[in-house]
TrEMBL record:
CDD domains: AmyAc_SI_OligoGlu_DGase. This is Glucan 1,6-alpha-glucosidase. It catalyses: Hydrolysis of (1->6)-alpha-D-glucosidic linkages in (1->6)-alpha-D-glucans and derived oligosaccharides. Its EC number is 3.2.1.70. PANTHER family: ALPHA-AMYLASE FAMILY MEMBER, NEUTRAL AND BASIC AMINO ACID TRANSPORT PROTEIN RBAT. One of its GO terms (molecular function) is glucan 1,6-alpha-glucosidase activity. GO terms for biological process: oligosaccharide catabolic process. Residues 13-400 form the Glycosyl hydrolase family 13 catalytic domain. The keyword Membrane does not apply. It holds the Pfam family Alpha-amylase. Keywords: Glycosidase, Hydrolase. Belongs to the glycosyl hydrolase 13 family. The physiological substrates may be short isomaltosaccharides.
Length: 533
């Protein structure tokens, strides 16, 4: 596989509403992001995945777009966006835009016209039926909504304000490619593609993901937009297997650079149930899944590496210990992931160990998905306590509380009233404190990013899982005669690990590791020339 810049960098996801407010309206904005670029440069990241900043009525926090070529007024102007691209570039940081083309807002001019009549020129840009079937929306309830004016039902796999686009229409596809080229012309470095595996669907046969024309559309998109340019593309593909991921990301196929797969993320869900039906994480299962993705892509595809994003709870609260061992477990997750093969993604606040923010009542929820599941499960007879427990574990607001910059009011995020309340632990957990403490989680991330820049072994090395106790996750990376050992105690208990190494590279406790690993202890070390040394 020919070496690309996106294989060597670490990406950082910004959720603009919650990153930094510059004008006191309580909502993060683009000038706020610009004001924090020096911080991101200090961290060492090479690219920003920017969650949507397009014009939107905000039914689903910007993932319902009403104009792809305008900036949401709350976030700033197109001039601000152009300045962000330029200022990031000066610091060696590339901007990756979020591309949401499975659906639009019902306020997009295409849909406004489409619903006027069956003969309108954009009617066929969307998926209409005279009779609905029993497909359910991912946000609960029927995925079909009757439109009085059109006299038909339209498909919405998400909110009813997010009608699905009909990718079978060639004119629609061309309009999307024109929009992508508009942004490429602005100087962005690529796209993260929201639920891209849903764009080819056969709703009458209930085929919604990985439909028959998916790869045809991606090849066509590649040719019409980013193909032949030095850009990065990453697809959000919930249904991907390693074989499917190779189809997407093998350079010979001319589709995408890489995909996000979510197999590891579903391991604390009851099999065959929804994400709200919880079970404990089984560490051997996690080892097996992550190892499968490390080894089966081989050199035919490329991996993305992540624990967190805007849709997922904070990993330190989810699978770590966000109280007694918050610092140790946050560093353990960082070390375990960043030494793997693939492009790592840090979600804003992860680098300082931000935690989930539990709620006690539905009135505290902002997220449409959590509100819908609360009402649906209440009607099904679940107790309020049960539903709140699931939302506290898995709700998307956990990731969306504002970044904790300092111990000042509203954690330094805004001088006004924050759109979503700040986690009360901001006086202890914040960027200012992290930068002052040389042993903070921030500096662990900074070191891991630098290690990747300095060591081709991390990018290209072979991966091998070691046979250890259930709660020890240990693997080696080997490249051109050099071998590194990565060990993590994925547990609050002490665990023994027998291993000899030559030189310690990084470690999440202040003193050297011994034969008995402490809770959440993790380290990286160089092994001797003889692996049995």
């Amino acid at each position: 596989m020919k070496q690309k810049w996106w294989q060597e960098i670490v990406m950082y996801q910004i959720y603009p509403r919650s990153f930094q407010d510059s004008n006191g309206d309580g909502i993060g904005d683009i000038p706020g992001i610009i004001s924090r670029l020096d911080y991101l440069q200090k961290l060492g990241i090479g690219g920003i995945w920017l969650s949507p900043v397009y014009q939107s009525p905000n039914d689903d926090n910007g993932y319902d777009i009403s104009d792809y070529e305008s900036i949401m007024t709350e976030f700033g102007t197109m001039a601000d966006m152009e300045r962000l691209i330029s200022e990031a570039d000066k610091r060696g940081i590339k901007i990756i835009m979020d591309l949401v083309v499975n659906h639009t807002s019902d306020e997009h001019p295409w849909f406004v016209e489409a619903r006027q009549s069956k003969n309108s020129k954009t009617h066929d840009y969307y998926v209409w039926r005279d009779e609905p079937n029993d497909i359910e929306s991912i946000f609960s309830g029927s995925a079909w909504q009757f439109d009085e004016t059109a006299g038909q039902y339209y498909l919405h796999l998400f909110s009813k304000k997010q009608p699905d686009l009909n990718w079978e229409n060639e004119k629609l596809r061309q309009a999307i490619y024109d929009m992508m080229n508009f942004w490429i012309g602005k100087g962005i470095s690529g796209f993260r593609m929201d639920v891209i595996d849903l764009i080819s669907k056969l709703p009458d046969q209930k085929i919604l993901g990985n439909g028959p024309h998916l790869h045809d559309y991606l090849k066509e998109m590649n040719q019409a937009t980013f193909g032949g340019k030095d850009l990065m593309t990453v697809g959000e593909t919930w249904g991907a297997t390693p074989e499917i991921a190779k189809q997407y990301s093998n350079p010979a196929n001319n589709e995408l650079s890489m995909v996000f797969q979510f197999e590891h993320i579903a391991l604390d869900e009851v099999l065959g149930q929804t994400k709200w039906d919880l079970r404990d994480l089984n560490v051997p299962e996690l080892k097996q899944v992550l190892t499968k993705w490390q080894t089966e892509l081989g050199n035919e595809g490329w991996n993305s590496l992540f624990w967190n994003n805007h849709d997922l709870p904070r990993i330190v609260s989810r699978w770590g210990n966000d109280m007694t061992y918050r610092v140790e477990s946050a560093k353990m997750f960082a070390i375990l992931l960043h030494l793997m093969k693939g492009t790592p993604y840090i979600y804003q606040g992860e680098e300082i160990g931000m935690t989930n923010k539990p709620i006690s009542d539905v009135s505290e929820i902002d997220d449409i998905e959590s509100i819908n599941i609360y009402n649906e499960r209440l009607a099904q007879g679940y107790s309020k306590e049960e539903i709140i427990r699931s939302i506290n574990a898995k709700g998307r607001d956990n990731a969306r509380t504002p970044i904790q910059w300092s111990a000042d009011d509203n954690a330094g995020f805004t001088s006004g009233r924050s759109w979503l309340s700040v986690n009360p632990n901001y006086k202890v957990i914040n960027v200012e404190e992290a930068l002052k403490d040389k042993n903070s989680i921030f500096y662990t991330y900074q070191k891991l990013i630098q290690l990747r820049k300095d060591n081709p072994l991390i990018i290209w090395g072979d991966y091998e899982l070691l046979d250890t106790a259930d709660n020890i996750f240990a693997y080696t990376r080997s490249y051109q005669g050099e071998k590194w050992l990565v060990v993590a105690n994925f547990s609050e208990e002490e665990n023994e690990f027998e291993g000899v190494f030559r030189e310690l590279i990084t470690h999440n406790y202040p003193d050297k590791p011994q034969k008995v690993l402490r809770p959440y202890e993790a380290f990286v070390a160089k092994m001797g020339d003889d692996e049995n040394e």
